[in-house]
Amino acid sequence: MASIFDVAEYILKKKGPMTAMKLQKLVYYAQAWHAVWEERPLFDSRIEAWANGPVAPKLYKRHKGVFLLESGCFSGNPNALTAVEKDTIGRILSFYGDKNPQWLSDLTHLEDPWILARKGLAKRDVGNQEITLESMMEYYSGL
Question: pLDDT grade, residue 123 (50/70/90)?
């Protein structure tokens, strides 16, 4: 199984520099759709429902305070990804990759995995509730 850093490096290598917010959302969608298509996670890292959308805290700890991210900043190994994992990420980048970070964040706010994980919190409340793989699979498999 790939690490979240392998996935992040692969995305940055394919799409070039991007904001931390955009990378977080692309990593989230890669995890969600890989789980639906392959019935297993892409990486083993927690994703939480933060105010601005899904965030992987493990990834966040590495880029905290940095707005624009580029390949090489996570020390991940894109070559560790299998052909199937690269295909999943490629499809995610084809569909979501040209969207701006705010559009991606807004989209996650309309979808059940983020909404359900934030239940009981106000829009801007800090939260660290997990968006479970099961929640992602249930929602995205129905689309």
Answer: confident
List, for residues 12-55, the tens digit of each pLDDT value: 999 999 999 999 999 999 999 999 999 999 999 999 999 999 99
* Predicted TM-score of the model (pTM): 0.97
Amino acid at 36: V
d(CA 132, CA 100): 25
* Token reading at 64: 């905290």
Q: What does the alpha-carbon distance between residue 115 and residue 102 come to, in Å, rounded to a whole number?
A: 17
Q: How many structural domains compose the chain?
A: 1
- What tokens does 57 get? 């805290």
Range of the domain at 127: 4-141
SS (H, E, C) the chain: CECHHHHHHHHHHHHCCEEHHHHHHHHHHHHHHHHHHHCCCCECCCCEEECCEEECHHHHHHHCCCCEECCCCCCCCHHHCCHHHHHHHHHHHHHHCCCCHHHHHHHHHCCHHHHHHCCCCCCCCCCCCECCHHHHHHHHHCC
